[in-house]
Design goal:
Layout lengths: L4 E6 L5 E2 L5 E4 L7 H5 L25 E4 L5 E7 L11 E8 L2 E5 L5 E4 L3 E10 L6 E8 L5 E9 L5 E8 L10 E2 L5 E2 L5 E2 L4 E2 L53 E12 L3 E12 L12 H8 L5 E4 L3 H4 L22 E2 L5 E2 L5 H11 L2 E6 L20 H16 L5 H8 L10 E4 L7 H17 L4 E5 L7 H13 L3 E8 L1 H6 L13 E9 L4 H16 L4 E6 L3 E3 L10 E3 L4 E3 L1 H10 L5 E3 L1 E4 L3 E3 L5 E8 L2 E11 L4 E3 L3 E3 L5 E2 L4 E2 L3 E11 L4 E6 L6 E6 L2 E8 L2 E9 L10 E9 L4 E6 L2 E7 L3 E3 L1 E8 L4 E8 L5 E4 L1 H6 L4 H5 L1 E7 L17 E5 L5 E4 L3 E6 L1
Parallel strand pairs: 1-51, 3-19, 3-27, 19-22, 22-23, 23-24, 24-25, 25-26, 26-27, 28-29
Antiparallel strand pairs: 1-32, 2-31, 4-7, 5-6, 6-18, 7-17, 8-17, 9-12, 9-18, 10-11, 10-17, 12-15, 12-16, 13-14, 20-21, 29-30, 31-49, 33-48, 34-38, 34-39, 34-41, 35-36, 35-37, 35-40, 40-45, 41-42, 42-43, 43-44, 45-46, 46-47, 49-50, 50-55, 51-54, 52-53, 52-55
Length: 861
């Protein structure tokens, strides 16, 4: 038993009513979260719309293989005339002179096929010229090239027709297919079910007019999420949340992990193909149609109170042509115009606004859609571009139409559209986000105000969520908050990505927030890493967000999803590949809060050893980092005893760390340099101090001048100032002086003799926290304890229990859910968390709980 002891004292009179919508999720199509991720579609580029705007090496046949055996002759081209859908005009032109020939789709990192599972393949086809009926053999191909299932469809007309067939992999994983005679008719197979063409264009002049709706059918039974999951009194978590009337079954075994879809053309002729699709048949119905059940399950188990979507940066897009328009993502998938993704790939919008809204309903989350504030992203070479004033009335109508689509009765124009798609009942929209990390300038304010006023006038019950920039400080943050107060915006969306040390140091960030102004939605936040220490720092900060839940009304970790091997951003809450889901430690932290939601919180003071004081190294090295090209001259270090160490000039190309020859030691020193910037958006950096260790310092020059401390391997800014990239041109030169004291705990940055940043780190870092909140309706009290230290600690909760009048019987039979581990740095990107919560019974009759080292505990009383 530890000798260390904390005493918690509760201020009952200081109780605060807090938001019951505090914990939610934020879905953005980043790191291949939608296509190849949440979307259950297995075919990549089935519409042949990939192009260089998505990625410089992509084209209409990306993800497709053209197979022409020896002795065959075939050509595969691209057509755009008379397409299925003018919104997505490209299609494959198949010319077979000597059969056979094939097209193979490799999917998103291969296709996973499972034993006994049925897959639905559909495609649009038409024959060309004098070609007779064109059979197409469809096969699911395994990892070794074996055929796992096969069927045949036939293109019989010169009009576009949609053809569909089901293919079932045998329960034992062996080949199972429909045997097709040479007449092209499917017959007698054991599992596959071939269908006739079920949708053909009815007018040759407009071949898309009779396209199918493409929307999921109304569910046979309403999705009815179970009550919040309760953690069992054992070392394992309870059963997953029930999405329908039965628990989502475990996946059957995979018989292929690098599978493919093969289309084989067995007769000569010409054929056009488009919108080729393959999905598990089980995913084509219900509220979560066309989505991976295991990823939906991972979201449902978080019990989010709301879901923000679809972004993020993809909302306002990279330029006007890339701006997200919600109404272009509903209806038949063929008519949803594809676009490039801000994060460097493609958006098919197979998961669009209707699907997002259905997903929210399925997992019991309130929808929080985010629309552009009529300006594009500021982080482009052209800067933010507004929708033209003459086009603003139409855009405002688009915004108002979304509210009607969500909430209007079925006899309203957009409510009727929703009903046509299979959802006659309103979605019950309460929140609407306008803008994301926008530059707060007069044009933004003009466009935002027009939208805001229109929404207030038409739908005063809707809570509009504004934006205050990408960080919890800086010009956009200050201007955004000033404008939000002036305009009376109900809620503003803050973002904050920080190191564990920053979160620990800033537990009281919201203590002094203006209770009379807009509420805070911390819409994107996270700690830089997937290790246990990251999760504990988030738990500590979240505990204090909950305490300030009267002003912080909502919060959501970001990013939510990342596909292994395609991470645009790390860390992420949930990683996945084609076969499995991997929950990071932060996932479990989020779940421990969201399954214990409260409506009241009490201030608590702690007496005892609650802080960490580091012994910083005295080593002094120097390393050049960053993405900019720069020349660094007249580089020197002056030590505390007056010695000047001259260092060689560095011609830095922005392609990786460059170590200098500096190797000395001391408590304090001064760096001097003359830096000439040439190109590169993100500037140049000096890593200083013990640069090979986890605790050192960084000076950043360029887009922002700042001084930073790196603690436990990740850093945060002590002080700094933003610099407009318009003011940083090739040839810009800075005379730099950096004064470092207390082994890097104190730093001052001078540019051209002017003090730019002056920062001093508090040596005492809070690492142990105790907070108390209640679900008053249920009569349940939750005590949250974070111990981010290497020793266990006794936490005396006697006064807390007495102050709340908790009966001895409740104290003696308390439940604790504990997330703990023996290595604070355990946890890797793309892997399952090494530790998960454990549920145990504890006896608090004596009022003392012993919190394990490196742990987060939620005690239920």
């Amino acid at each position: 038993m530890t000798n260390e002891r904390l005493t918690a004292t509760l201020d009952k009179a200081g109780v605060r009513k807090i938001s019951t919508d505090l914990w939610g999720i934020f879905f953005e199509d980043i790191s291949h979260s939608a296509d190849g991720g949440l979307a259950s579609e297995l075919v990549q580029n089935g519409a042949f719309e990939y192009n260089r705007a998505d990625s410089r090496d992509w084209s209409s046949y990306t993800a497709w293989r053209k197979i022409v055996p020896e002795g065959s002759f075939a050509a595969f081209g691209v057509g755009v005339d008379d397409p299925v859908a003018n919104e997505n005009p490209h299609y494959a032109v198949v010319e077979v002179r000597d059969a056979p020939a094939s097209l193979e789709n490799v999917g998103f990192d291969g296709m996973v096929f499972r034993a006994g599972e049925t897959y639905r393949c559909s495609l649009w086809a038409r024959k060309r010229g004098g070609t007779g009926a064109m059979p197409i053999d469809i096969a699911l191909i395994g990892d070794r090239g074996e055929t796992l299932a096969r069927a045949r469809v036939t293109a019989e007309t010169r009009q576009w027709c949609q053809l569909a067939v089901d293919l079932t992999v045998a329960a034992d994983g062996t080949a199972s297919y429909d045997a097709a005679d040479d007449d092209g008719e499917t017959r007698g197979g054991t599992d596959g079910i071939a269908r006739e063409s079920y949708a053909c264009a009815g007018d040759a002049d407009d071949p898309a007019q009779d396209a199918p709706s493409g929307e999921p059918n109304a569910p046979d039974d309403p999705v009815n999420p179970a009550s919040p999951a309760v953690l069992a009194n054992s070392t394992a978590l309870a059963n997953p949340v029930n999405l329908t009337n039965s628990t989502v079954p475990a996946n059957p075994p995979a018989v292929a992990r690098q599978g493919m879809l093969r289309l084989t053309f067995t007769q000569p002729g010409e054929l056009d193909l488009d919108f080729i699709s393959l999905e598990p048949a089980a995913t084509t119905q219900g509220l979560t149609a066309h989505m991976r059940p295991d990823l939906v399950q991972a979201l449902a188990e978080l019990k989010p109170r709301f879901m923000r979507f679809p972004g993020g940066c993809i909302t306002h897009g990279l330029g006007m042509e890339n701006m997200y328009h919600w109404d272009r993502t509903i209806g038949a998938v063929e008519h949803r115009p594809h676009n490039f993704n801000t994060w460097g790939y493609h958006q098919s919008f197979r998961v669009g606004y209707y699907e997002y809204l259905c997903l929210c309903e399925a997992i019991g989350a309130k929808p929080l859609p985010v629309l552009p504030a009529a300006v594009s992203c500021q982080n482009t070479s052209q800067g933010p571009v507004p929708i033209a004033e003459r086009d603003m009335p139409a855009y405002i109508d688009e915004v108002l139409a979304l509210v009607e689509f969500c909430n209007g009765d079925a006899d309203t124009p957009w409510g009727a559209r929703r009903a046509e798609l299979g959802h006659p009942e309103p979605f019950g929209l309460e929140y609407l986000g306008i803008g994301n990390e926008d530059l707060i300038d007069p044009v933004f304010k003009d466009r935002f105000q027009r939208i805001f006023d229109a929404v207030k006038a038409a739908y005063p019950e809707i809570v509009v969520v504004g934006t205050v920039g990408p960080a919890p400080e800086g010009q956009d943050y200050e201007l955004g908050w000033a404008y939000a107060r002036e305009a009376g915006i109900p809620v503003v969306d803050e973002h904050s990505y920080q190191s564990p040390s920053w979160w620990f140091h800033n537990l009281h960030h919201y203590d002094d927030a203006d209770r009379g102004g807009p509420k805070v939605y911390l819409g994107e936040y996270g700690s830089w890493g997937t290790q246990l220490i990251n999760g504990l720092s988030e738990a500590a900060f979240m505990s204090h967000m909950e305490l300030n839940g009267d002003v912080v009304s909502m919060a959501s970790y970001a990013p939510l999803f990342a596909k292994n091997g395609h991470e645009s951003w790390n860390p992420d809450l949930i990683y996945f590949d084609n076969e499995r889901v991997y929950r990071a430690i932060s996932y479990w932290v989020q779940r421990m809060f969201a399954t214990t939601t409260c409506d009241a919180a009490y201030p608590v003071t702690l007496d005892g050893p609650a802080t960490l004081t580091r012994e910083l190294p005295e080593n002094i090295g120097l390393r050049i980092l960053g993405g900019a090209h720069a020349d660094i001259r007249d580089l020197s270090i002056e030590t505390a005893d007056g010695e000047t160490i001259a260092l060689p000039d560095v011609h830095y190309l922005g392609n990786g760390p460059v170590d200098t020859t500096l190797a000395t030691s001391g408590e304090s020193y001064t760096l001097r340099a003359r830096v000439t910037y040439w190109e590169g958006m993100w500037g140049v950096q000096f890593a200083m101090g013990d640069v090979d260790g986890p605790n050192h310092n960084i000076v950043s020059l360029g887009r922002g001048h700042s001084v930073q401390v790196v603690r436990d391997g990740s850093g945060y800014a002590l002080a700094g100032t933003e610099v407009s990239m318009d003011a940083v041109r090739p040839g810009t030169t800075w005379d730099v002086r950096v004064e470092v004291a207390d082994r890097g705990a104190s730093m001052r940055l001078f540019i051209d003799g002017e003090l730019i940043a002056d920062g001093c780190e508090d040596p005492a870092e809070p690492r142990r926290t105790v907070t108390v909140a209640q679900d008053t309706a249920a009569g349940v009290t939750y005590v949250r304890v974070v111990n981010a230290m290497p020793e266990s600690v006794q936490v005396d909760l006697t006064q807390v229990c007495d102050g709340l009048g908790l009966a001895p019987e409740r104290r003696a039979h308390a439940k604790a859910v504990v997330l703990a581990g023996d290595d604070e740095y355990a946890g890797r990107v793309g892997q399952e968390a090494p530790y998960a919560p454990q549920s145990v019974r504890i006896d608090l009759a004596a009022g003392v709980y012993e919190a394990p080292a490196w742990s987060f505990t939620v005690i239920t009383l």
